[in-house]
Specification:
Protein name: FRG domain-containing protein
Number of helices: 14
Order of helices and strands: HEHEHHHEHEEEHHEEHHHHHH
Distance between the termini: 44 Å
Pfam families: FRG
Strand content: 5-15%
InterPro entries: FRG-dom
Helix content: 40-55%
Oligomer: single chain
Amino acid sequence: MRQVSGAVLTQELAKHTSIKDVAADKGFPVKSYRELVEQVAKLSYLNKDHLLFFRGQGSDYKNKAEKSTFYPTIYRSDYLTQQELDYRFDKLYSASKILVDLFKKHKVEGQYELRRKKYIQWSILQHYEVTETPLIDITQSIRVACSFAQLNNDQDTAFIYVFGLPYYTNRISINSEQDLINIRLLSISPPKALRPYFQEGFLVGTDDITNEYERKEELDLNNRLIAKFEIPNSDSFWGKSFDRIPKNALYPQNDEIERICRDISKNLGAEIAPSNIGKFLKLWAEIEQDTLRRARKYIRDIHNIRNAITVLLKYEENTYGLYKELDNLRIFRNNVVHKPASISNDELNRNIQTLRMLRVEIGKKNS
């Protein structure tokens, strides 16, 4: 996503920081909810070209440059390897497939649209905290943001962030000029999904980016940060006229979609340990990259593992049996990702060992 441009600060904020330095500077202290609302009202008036959104956190998480950072969960890590990122996306695709199947099984309203649109799948998986996604939660409600900032917070203060985004025009708004996607949860969630309605939730991410990107920094929502406030983590912040939203309202009970999302982990395979799935997919990602590199020595224009194996079967006869076995594992890998309920823990453990053996043996043959 592109950096916010043309944003203007209030007089009070301008004495404290600048748009350029707001992520690095301390939060502007406000003592009460009313004072915060008044500051936001001024910001909204001054920034007519931007629609303001909010996020509340108990801590001000910083990157290595000591700036506030807001990466979607799938990109969070100081040292994110390509193998780990590929694994996270494999897990996301697998969870998406199961979500579609469960919506169909439970005859949830909106199942047909869910099946066709990955952003709806990802939005539900993100909002219900099922797995990592390329989207991050924000809200248009200051009260919701403040309530989340104070929720389960044992610190003396909390933080409220204000982001300037383009005006949204649809339920799923894609702004190609700003490289942004903004999803209004209230419009895409089925009525039985209670949480998005109570939280007034939106999800935002970088358009058309998955597991390949040029600069990780372009995925950070701090590119759109306009203001950062530090609020007291106490009831006194709300005063007599306002109240925080209680936890049982932010996370309402009897939410059928929450129950479905809890079932997703069970459907990954009743006896399959998630750590074993992770081991297999990480090993596969490592050997896949090595196989692609080897194949490109013979034919440069190779972009997928299936074609790479075909090339190596032709040019490296001394490893024919090994790559034939790898091709069989490629089919198993696809089942792990797309049909996880069809595999057993024994199969998974056995193929983890086979992958390890193949990596060693192929290395010996080509050394």
